[in-house]
Design brief:
By secondary structure, the chain is mainly β. The chain folds into three domains: 103 residues, Immunoglobulin-like; 114 residues, TonB-dependent receptor, plug domain (Ferric Hydroxamate Uptake Protein, Chain A, domain 1), CATH 2.170.130.10; 50 residues, no CATH class. It is built from six helices and 22 strands. The strands form six sheets. Strands 4-3-6-7-10 form a five-stranded mixed beta sheet, with no helix packed on it. A five-stranded mixed beta sheet has the order 11-16-17-14-15. Strands 1-20-19-18 form a four-stranded antiparallel beta sheet, with no helix packed on it. β6 and β7 form a beta hairpin. The longest helix has 8 residues. The radius of gyration is 33 Å and the shape is elongated. It starts with a strand and ends with a strand.
Length: 377
């Protein structure tokens, strides 16, 4: 029977506790609230709202005007800050990436809280709140770039300092824990020294340090490759850290279907098949699946689900040519092989010394004597 591989991933999003700081795939937002004179504003109400899920994270600036919101899933957000005697500050279109530590300082303008100042600003290119260096590969990249086998780990090579061996280009549809499938090295380290996290959970197969499971591209929200200067929260690695995050459901239902196929009808025959007059071998490869995500409650603000399925069906019989010895060959007679038989160095040596008996015992004739002698069939 043809090999059958099935990948199923189900994720339910629930509000996270502020105490679960060990799950390092989440983002963090921090900053300081000032007024127009750069004086600190304590007690300001800070609200961070996920645009796709309509979920909110709330905080209050302390006596130093600082606020800190941790354990934020990657996604699109809107930041709102308000305090008595100041206009409401709103910054929409804020994107937080996996493992990002973003710092946004807020300046409030005097006025009524019924008035709103909307700020449109791009995220800073320099992440000053963390010394970690890395590259984020988002969902658009994982689904738009061509991947032979649809293994997102091939995209790790987009990060500077990562070297993927050529054998990795033909990796399996999803990792099975074998080194050849997702092997790569970071900054000259061995290809067995990298840490792979999925939603904060290590995925390495014991003894290999390679992931036992990699979601399909349609089920990956994004992942970050941290190549150097990683923080103390990451351990057990002498190379890079790859932190992947599953996609999550949103306040609206979304889904999709896909199929990728290969067929011998689209292929040419190979050189050896043409030489021997053999027709193209049958080849069928179907990789298909789908995703579905959405809310689980009527309020659409607390609990969400995301389902992903991928199946693989493959038929790939191949023809191989082998030479087996005939009955005459087993008896030492190589006269019908159509070519000069291989002669043992010991037989040639005995023939050249003038003994000549080894050629006869091997059913070979000794041509000549001395240094120029040789055994012939």
């Amino acid at each position: 029977m043809p090999p059958i591989r099935i990948a199923v991933a189900i994720m339910v999003s629930l509000p996270l506790s502020q105490f679960l700081r060990a799950q390092t795939e989440a983002a963090t937002l921090r900053g300081v609230v000032h007024d127009a004179s750069q004086a600190i504003v304590p007690g300001a109400a800070v609200a961070l709202t996920n645009i796709d899920q309509n979920r909110s994270w709330n905080a209050t600036s302390n006596e130093r005007g600082e606020y800190d919101i941790a354990q934020i899933p990657p996604g699109r957000y809107s930041l709102a800050v308000e305090s008595r005697g100041f206009k409401k500050y709103v910054q929409p279109g804020l994107t937080l990436a996996v493992n990002q530590v973003a710092q946004i300082d807020v300046t409030l303008q005097p006025g009524s809280v019924t008035e709103t100042i909307e700020v449109h600003a791009d995220a800073p290119l320099l992440e000053s709140a963390s010394s970690t260096l890395g590259e984020v590969v988002n969902h658009l990249t994982t689904t738009a770039l061509p991947l032979n086998g649809r293994n997102v780990m091939q995209l790790v090579a987009l990060t500077p300092g990562i070297n993927a061996p050529p054998s990795d280009h033909g990796s399996q549809p999803f990792a099975s824990g074998t080194i050849a499938n997702v092997g790569f090295s970071a900054n000259g380290s061995r290809d067995l020294n990298s840490l792979v996290l999925l939603d904060g959970s290590p995925q390495e197969v014991m003894g290999y340090d390679q992931p036992g499971y990699v979601p399909p591209p349609d089920a990956v929200e994004e992942f970050k490759v941290i190549a150097n200067t990683m923080s103390a929260e990451y351990g057990r690695t002498g190379g890079a850290v790859i932190s992947m995050v599953h996609r999550a459901g949103s306040k609206n239902f979304h889904g999709g279907l896909y199929e990728f196929l290969r067929n011998n009808a689209f292929d040419a025959n190979n050189f050896f098949g043409n030489r021997s007059g053999q027709a193209r071998a049958p080849f069928r490869f179907n990789q298909f699946g789908g995703t579905l995500g959405g809310p689980l409650t009527p309020a659409r603000t607390s609990t969400f689900f995301f389902f992903s399925y991928q199946g693989v069906r493959q038929k790939n019989p191949s023809a191989s040519f082998y030479t087996v010895p005939t009955a005459l060959m087993k008896g030492g007679d190589f006269t019908n092989t159509g070519a000069h038989a291989a002669v043992s160095p010991l037989v040639v040596n005995l023939c050249r010394t003038g003994r000549g008996l080894s050629c006869e015992t091997s059913r070979l004739a000794c041509a000549g004597r001395g240094a120029g002698a040789s055994c012939r069939p």
